[in-house]
């Protein structure tokens, strides 16, 4: 059962035994005739990818986090791995963590950060329900991102002059540095948050981030 009949059995098992490991995959209840099946797995699921690769070989086209498996070639664009934007402070926007920021290696999390508007006018941050972010090292190089399905809904977070409000941020730890592996390893890192208004793209100052096992 090394073809689709066998693969669909393993996909059903993974859905039950390892929730969240499969990100994009052929539905196991469907009838398929492809010669190769594309499967995207979460950044923490490299061992699962290794088992699928060993069993099915060229039948599966595997991606783990932001890289192909087992070649560790980035499939995300170079642009996605670069931080572009003006300092948020130059527009009067300041970001601080409401509580210590922490996420498990290879996973993603939603946390609230406190955004303060020190300008004399209202500012509205736009996102798809959560601000995006990037994990960086001490030199400011991007080492990790969220990769996966995203919500297309556009939401605005209005902040009145000289007021603060909590805003959700999405933190992802899929590694974009092959030497680090598929997931940013545990340790102390930094988080840079992207802030988008109607006319500007900005970046927060780095915030401390702990990645746990």
TrEMBL record:
Domain of life of the native organism: Bacteria
Protein name per UniProt: Uncharacterized protein
């Amino acid at each position: 059962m090394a073809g689709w009949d066998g693969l669909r059995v393993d996909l059903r098992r993974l859905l039950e035994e390892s929730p969240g490991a499969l990100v994009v995959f052929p539905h196991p209840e469907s009838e398929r005739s492809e010669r190769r099946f594309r499967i995207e797995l979460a950044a923490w699921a490299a061992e699962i990818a290794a088992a699928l690769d060993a069993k099915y070989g060229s039948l599966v086209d595997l991606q783990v986090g932001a890289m192909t498996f087992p070649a560790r070639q980035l499939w995300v664009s170079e642009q996605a791995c670069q931080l572009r934007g003006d300092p948020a402070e130059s527009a009067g926007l300041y970001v601080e963590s409401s509580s210590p920021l922490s996420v498990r290696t290879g996973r993603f999390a939603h946390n609230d950060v406190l955004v303060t508007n020190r300008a004399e006018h209202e500012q509205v941050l736009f996102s798809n329900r959560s601000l995006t972010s990037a994990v960086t090292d001490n030199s400011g190089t991007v080492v990790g991102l969220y990769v996966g399905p995203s919500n297309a809904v556009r939401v605005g977070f209005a902040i009145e002059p000289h007021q603060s409000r909590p805003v959700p941020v999405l933190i992802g730890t899929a590694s974009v540095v092959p030497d680090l592996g598929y997931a940013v390893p545990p340790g102390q890192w930094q988080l840079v948050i992207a802030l988008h208004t109607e006319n500007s793209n900005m970046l927060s100052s780095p915030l401390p981030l702990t990645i746990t096992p």
